[in-house]
Design brief:
Elements (H helix, E strand, L loop, with lengths): L10 E8 L3 H11 L8 E8 L5 H10 L6 E6 L4 H11 L4 E4 L5 E2 L3 H8 L4 E4 L1 E6 L6 E2 L13 E2 L15 E2 H4 L12 H9 L5 E4 L5 E6 L11 H21 L6 H23 L1
Helix pairs in contact: 7-8
Length: 278
């Protein structure tokens, strides 16, 4: 009898984690429950910072879930961008999916995104939020751009989705050799998405039952423990870097997307400074 050949890994799910708590097990359990054939996706879990007891805990969880194809990488250096870049360097899938270690996805998440993805099209789900310890889901500002079952839509028309790198399935060819800017500690997601936007053609949406669920935790707000001066200088750096990206090839980047990015970065920086100054 002829043996079946191994199936190609289609999706690499990259999850950075630092001092993981119980929410990581919920995130991994949601991936283990995916309806997509598990041979078609891999999970790359990048542990950064202290190694133990966290590595042992991760290995114990994976030992109890043998059906989940997961590679665990370790870096002693902190930083979500470093971790994501390490995951990108190791990824084998044709599509990349970023998930934060405290977020959840519905069991049809990967299968539904994969069904509508193409090499030049990004697949997008509905995104909602919930407070840690609650099961009540609510829409957030990104949800306003959701177009249920929408197909072949210009990415600039749903620009809120491109302020973050999660909640999407990205063809690996769009990313290429580009990586997250490790010099940024705030806004690295939107900077990365701006950088790769020159290769994005259109987007496709799933139906509203396919969800990325963003966990909001008290004490995880970034701007709460940074000075006003930090946020001011970080805003200037982000604006300068974004301008550098756009001017590197203005004929390929959308001026509309760049302008809105600059405006959102400026307004976001002002809000952070005002919040910190209270």
């Amino acid at each position: 009898m002829q043996q079946n050949e191994p199936r190609q890994t289609e999706i690499s799910v990259i999850i950075p984690t630092y001092r993981p708590e119980g929410f990581l097990w919920e995130c991994l359990a949601a991936l283990d429950a995916q309806t997509l054939d598990h041979s078609l996706f891999e999970v790359i879990l990048v542990l950064n910072g202290p190694r133990e007891p966290f590595m042992s805990q991760i290995q114990a969880f994976l030992g109890a879930h043998p059906g989940l194809v997961c590679r665990v990488l370790y870096s002693p250096q902190n930083g979500v961008s470093l971790a994501r870049n390490r995951g990108l360097d190791e990824a084998q899938g044709r599509y990349i999916c970023f998930i934060d270690d405290d977020d959840l996805v519905t069991e049809n998440y990967l299968a539904s995104l994969f069904a509508i993805a193409t090499p030049d099209t990004i697949a997008l789900p509905y995104i909602c939020a919930f407070d840690d310890g609650s099961t009540v889901m609510r829409p957030i500002y990104i949800s306003e751009d959701f177009i249920e079952g929408g197909r072949d839509i210009p990415y600039v028309a749903v620009r809120r989705y491109f302020y973050i790198s999660c909640c999407k399935l990205i063809p690996r060819g769009i990313i290429g050799s580009r990586r997250f800017d490790v010099a940024l500690r705030n806004g690295e997601d939107s900077q990365f998405m701006l950088q790769i936007s020159d290769r994005i053609g259109r987007v496709n949406f799933t139906d509203g039952h396919v969800r990325y669920m963003y966990r909001q935790r008290s004490g995880s707000a970034f701007y709460g423990n940074r000075s006003v001066w930090y946020h001011f200088t970080n805003m200037l750096v982000r604006l300068a870097k974004a301008t550098g990206v756009y001017l590197s090839c203005p004929c390929r980047y959308s001026f509309r997307f760049y302008f809105v990015y600059m405006l959102a970065t400026f307004m976001g920086g002002i809000r952070q400074m005002l919040h910190r100054g209270q």
